[in-house]
Write a structure and sequence with these properties.
about 35% helix, alpha/beta, nine-stranded mixed sheet, five-stranded parallel sheet
């Protein structure tokens, strides 16, 4: 097995007898060709968890702390019934599997927890104990002698107790035994059980207990709610005392609280492109046992010091595997896919992002309403500078390459900005709920705001196609160009005609806030009653979606009169503005590529909002979209040019200006974009501040010009690393180990290329290089910390840069021999992850020496937001 499993595991807890009824196809008694109804029964609860663990860890290591109970002796109340049916394994797939069609519930009568469980004294020693507490009796005092945990841990007690919980949580005598003793001490070794306790509970169970944990909007919002609930919700606050608390969000993510000796650490593992419930929505049908297979994955990895995070990741993937496979192929005898699940738990490569999460509600309040998981450091604190490094990686390699950032995709629209993700998902939920209604009383009214060229209608159109299909009807009317009421009535007739065709039209009323709100009153009746007047006749608008796109208001909060302007407020009331606002069900504020702005109340001036750190990321996504580069393809663009596109303070007309400039580059440069492809300064100034734009490019050029000074130091640093690895003096006869001046020409060129790419590599993590005299002297330790944080990524980029430089000079992959220089071949032409550790250490060593190399040339490494 690829992971370190515990030496032994004991499973005990509540038992259920699952009764499975599989639908047949024999509708008549004389039908012979089709299979008939199947009815099976098997142990669920702790019994199913035991089978999952035995499959993943090995039957010889997993012991049952429960009896073999004849089916006839099971109380009816402990029997669970469900029907299963044949469904496609995935949408539009021909292959079919067994999944639950209907959960019929439990049998009648009172249950009894005493069904012959063995006494604790008969249990074999175990490193890990797993308890399935389904609130069916095992947690109460009558089962005391069957609990695998004595009153307090002893020397031979289990190292870990894994508690799989159902509601009500933090209740019952078993929980009081596990939680009443001392809090964890260093290393998780306490006198009580808390220091050894791993609690697993689903968010859905916590919501049943009254915990206010939202879902379906963003991972940041979900984490916020959970962190606050950990402080304010008594049952959850009690669970949070365990050494580890893991809260699952379906099979899409999990929250992990690790009570380390120095304080709690929070991490979130999540599907970066989805949200809670997304995966289940695309799979027809459902299954049971998801929490059981997740718990099995956690327990099977507890033999490893890093077992919790591995177990969470593999557990989420196993939950998905179980949902997809169900009870196996429909043409076969139904059975749990044990072999496939065990393989996922043992070997599956990670599919989930991992990010630090805030530890307290105070940290959330400090971070502000738009903090993002990708903007948090190791200590859970929010970044304070725009996410330029993240944007650089996204522009070059795509959103998929940045594994720690949540993102969302709606058709052709991709966004990684938390505010946009939440707004778009809320709009999608409104549209989905409205579409599900057969005969709604009125249209669904939405509003969209944003700067010119930001694409106010684009996002809603992509969501509409996702919900209603590509054939959705779109109608657009510009209210600033309408002369009279009769034109609005004619437009509403067009809407009605589409609705009568059985379609749900999306109607965009552009610039609805123009003309001193003169047309707002015309929409009140259609928005409220679903009807409009044509002469004396009232007509039903039908099922449709109204989208009001703002033309003068920057966002929803500023749609209306300025605060304190009594005259404007009276005019807004007379125009029926408040009535109109009350009829809007959802709002989308589109941000665009410029920093979000806010209005300063003291002087009514609009300035950049320092809380918006994501504007470079929004630009990066737009650039890749316009460039048309697909997943896994690198955008070939000069690093200085890309920095200018991402960092220039503002584009004159938002997305329109950025697109005009970038498409000019594409037209001139094709697949390879270079500064020489820029338009003349006068034309550049039409899109952005030309001086600021060109100064950023010059910053890169100035450093590259100093490559001849840096190259000897790079070679000397490499020689030191070689001497350190071998522990011996360097052999004088080796050409590549000579002093820089004695190197062959192509080797000197290698080092010069390495010097030039330093600034390109640093740009990938939000660092740049400026002349030393242009910035105040400061401690270099923060820069070293950033480099250390991203060391593996930077080392990989350094290796890729080395390969690219050699490829430009005709080198290829080849065996290691004495004539490799003459043959222009090298054995290390491979992915960084495939290098031996000693070769990776060379790249790591070079990256760690970047600050020293840069200082030699009279420069300093600074955050990208520091300007020369």
């Amino acid at each position: 097995m690829s992971h370190s499993t515990p030496a032994s595991v004991l499973v005990c807890g509540d038992l259920i007898l699952d009764q499975h009824i599989y639908e047949g196809e024999r509708t008549y008694a004389d039908t012979r060709s089709a299979h008939g109804v199947r009815v099976t029964e098997e142990l669920g609860g702790a019994g199913l968890l035991h089978r999952f663990l035995a499959s993943a860890v090995g039957a010889d290591k997993v012991h049952a702390g429960f009896p073999t109970v004849p089916a006839g002796e099971f109380p009816p109340a402990l029997r669970a019934y469900a029907t299963w049916k044949s469904v496609p394994i995935s949408p539009r797939a021909k292959e079919r599997v067994w999944r639950v069609a209907s959960a019929l519930g439990y049998g009648a009568g009172e249950f009894s927890p005493r069904i012959g469980f063995p006494a604790r004294e008969s249990f074999p020693p175990a490193e890990v104990v797993v308890i399935d507490d389904s609130s069916l009796g095992f947690r109460f005092w009558p089962s005391l002698k069957h609990w695998p945990v004595p009153e307090s841990p002893a020397a031979d007690s289990p190292r870990w107790v894994v508690l799989k919980l159902s509601g009500p949580v933090a209740e019952g005598d078993l929980w009081r035994r596990l939680s009443d003793f001392e809090k964890p001490s260093p290393g998780g070794e306490g006198k009580g059980w808390l220091g050894r306790l791993v609690v697993i509970v689903s968010a859905s169970n916590l919501r049943r207990e009254g915990a206010n944990i939202g879902q379906g909007v963003s991972w940041e919002r979900t984490v916020e709610d959970l962190v606050r609930a950990l402080e304010n919700h008594p049952p959850l606050r009690d669970l949070a005392r365990a050494r580890h608390l893991i809260v699952t969000f379906g099979c899409d993510g999990a929250f992990w609280r690790d009570n380390q000796p120095q304080g709690a650490v929070h991490r979130c593992l999540f599907d970066r492109g989805g949200i809670e419930g997304d995966f289940e929505r695309i799979i027809p049908g459902r299954v049971f046992g998801s929490q059981a297979i997740f718990t099995a994955a956690i327990a099977s990895h507890l033999g490893n010091p890093e077992g919790i995070d591995q177990g969470i990741d593999r557990g989420l993937q196993a939950m998905r595997e179980l949902l997809v496979r169900g009870h196996g192929p429909a043409e076969a005898t139904p059975a749990w896919p044990m072999q496939a699940l065990a393989k996922v738990i043992q070997d599956r490569v990670s599919d989930f992002a991992v990010a630090e999460a805030p530890r307290t509600s105070a940290e959330i309040a400090t971070a502000g309403r738009d903090w993002m998981l990708c903007g948090l450091g190791r200590d859970g604190r929010k970044a304070t500078e725009p996410l330029v490094g993240l944007a650089t990686r996204i522009a070059r390699f795509g959103v998929e390459s940045v594994t720690q950032i949540p993102c969302a995709k709606f058709g052709k629209l991709t966004t990684a900005d938390r505010q946009e993700i939440e707004a778009l998902r809320q709009i999608r939920n409104l549209i989905q709920n409205y579409h599900a209604k057969a005969r709604p009383e009125r249209p669904l009214s939405l509003a969209a705001f944003g700067p010119p060229g930001a694409g106010k209608s684009f996002g809603i159109k992509q969501i509409a196609r996702g919900v209603l299909g590509d054939d959705v009807a779109f109608l657009e009317f510009n209210l600033s160009q309408i002369a009279g009421e009769n034109e609005i009535v004619a437009a509403l007739h067009q809407v009605r005609d589409k609705a009568l065709e059985g379609r749900t039209p999306f109607v965009f009323w552009d610039e609805f806030d123009s003309g001193e709100y003169r047309w707002l009153r015309s929409f009140l009746a259609p928005m409220q009653d679903g009807k409009f007047l044509d002469g004396q006749l009232a007509h039903a608008v039908g099922k449709c979606v109204f989208v009001f796109a703002g033309g003068t208001s920057p966002d929803w909060d500023h749609f209306g009169p300025p605060a304190g302007d009594e005259k404007a407020e009276k005019q807004f009331v007379l125009a029926k503005g408040p009535d109109f606002r009350s009829r809007v069900a959802g709002v989308l504020n589109v941000l665009g590529p410029n920093p979000r702005q806010h209005c300063q109340p003291e002087n009514k001036l609009w300035t950049d909002d320092p809380a918006d750190l994501c504007w470079p990321v929004r630009r990066a996504i737009l650039l890749r979209t316009w460039a048309g580069v697909g997943k896994g393809t690198s955008l070939d663009i000069d690093a200085g040019l890309l920095a200018a596109l991402l960092e220039v303070p503002r584009y004159t007309n938002g997305a329109r200006s950025l697109e005009r400039l970038f498409r000019h580059l594409l037209d001139q440069g094709g697949a390879a974009l270079r500064p020489a492809h820029l338009p003349p300064r006068e034309q550049l100034a039409m899109s952005a501040d030309a001086d600021a734009f060109l100064a950023i490019i010059e910053r890169f050029a100035a450093f590259r010009a100093a490559a001849d000074v840096i190259a000897p130091a790079i070679h000397e640093g490499w020689r030191r690393e070689m001497a350190r690895q071998t522990g011996q003096p360097l052999p004088a006869q080796q050409d590549y180990l000579q002093e820089f001046a004695k190197l062959p020409a192509h080797m000197r060129a290698d080092n010069i290329a390495a010097a030039r790419r330093i600034i390109d590599v640093l740009a990938l993590v939000g660092l740049s290089v400026v002349r030393a005299g242009d910035v105040p002297t400061a401690d270099d330790q923060p820069i070293a910390d950033i480099i250390d944080k991203h060391l593996e990524f930077l080392a990989e980029a350094e290796h890729d840069g080395w390969m690219a430089a050699r490829e430009r000079n005709g080198w290829i992959k080849g065996p290691r021999d004495q004539n490799r220089d003459a043959a222009r071949q090298h054995p290390l032409f491979c992915h960084y992850r495939d290098l031996e550790k000693k070769e990776q250490d060379k790249d790591r060593g070079s990256v760690r020496l970047y600050p020293e190399f840069v200082r030699l040339a009279g420069f300093r490494i600074v955050p990208r937001t520091v300007r020369a």
